[in-house]
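Lecture notes, unit on binding sites. The following record was shown on slide 14. It pairs a sequence with LD2JLWAY.
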Amino acid sequence: MTRPLVLTLGEPAGIGPELTLKAWLGREASGLPPFAVAAGREQLEKVARKLGLAVPFSKVEPEDAQAAFATSLPVLAGSPEIDVEPGKPSPATASVTIGSIDRAVELVRQGRASAVVTNPIAKSVLYQAGFRHPGHTEYLAALSARFWGGAEPRAVMMLWSETLAVVPVTIHVPLRSVPELLTTELIVDTARITDRDMRERFGLAKPRLALSGLNPHAGEGGALGTEDDAVVRPAVEILQAEGVDAVGPLPADTMFHARARANYDVALCMYHDQALIPIKALAFDEGVNVTLGLPFIRTSPDHGTAFDIAGQGVARPDSLIAALKLAGRLTETTES
Ligand SMILES: NC(=O)C1=CN([C@@H]2O[C@H](COP(=O)(O)OP(=O)(O)OC[C@H]3O[C@@H](n4cnc5c(N)ncnc54)[C@H](O)[C@@H]3O)[C@@H](O)[C@H]2O)C=CC1
Ligand SMILES: NCC(=O)COP(=O)(O)O
């Protein structure tokens, strides 16, 4: 029996339900591994009806998902039903959204599922309901400690595609906080986790890491900022001394063109947009968000809830499909 991936509900008023249906419809063409959805069946049926998508459903335990997957979309028994209008999110649904994430992680912990794939959440909606974690990445670290015990691991966000892979060293923080949060220790720690998971999960023998600077022209010798030489460069030196294939600090404006990208496997960037703008510009439809540093595999589409197009039937499932495929691949690499 192949253990299924578990796909979470995500924000129910966003495009997640539509993408889930479309991904299942494209399962054969895309060669998807079996997945089960931790979401209410009636709720997904309503979206399918509205969009005219002919999707049969089955309510299953994870152990039955693989057999059901070829002919129906497996939804996990016991998932709560909620009624939402596409494009009209409400904090009242937050507990169900979060509960779906919890259940997915717990099933992986129990050995009943192989990996977690998350549909996008609307962070602001969850914050209104009192959710205290910036996003999935940080919440999944907290769930790791809850379900695996021990200290909370440091979760590292990586946006991956065949074209480019990027890691933001600081993640969901205001831009003005970045210089004070950026320490040599944080950069080294992030790079070590990236190096380890690129070997163990992605199967690279010696991952090549390129670290960006923080300031224009990587500080221009200190004239345009001091962090590049005082914080990033020492991190690169520590990593190199440990045998990690790391270079930098590189000027961020010239490290993403095609010839530059050929020189590294992952770009470590100092803040969220420095990392995510290039990959979303180059590979928006194929990009996958992967969380490194966790005791389990988690992937997600690179985009968000897209409320502006929810319920219209025009959302593209490509990134979710890429996330499901990558989760399947990483599971195979990790378990072999
Ligand atoms: N992994 C996650 O849970 C993520 C969640 N978000 C959340 O999503 C919400 C909305 O964020 P935005 O900045 O508006 O980004 P977004 O990615 O939801 O939308 C940006 C633009 O891309 C379009 N778009 C996104 N996905 C698409 C798809 N699959 N097919 C066709 N068009 C698509 C949207 O229509 C919109 O015009 C925020 O609350 C944010 O927190 C954002 C990124 C990742
Ligand atoms: N911009 C990326 C993003 O918001 C994804 O965050 P997460 O929910 O995967 O932590």
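Take-home: The longest helix spans residues 318-335.
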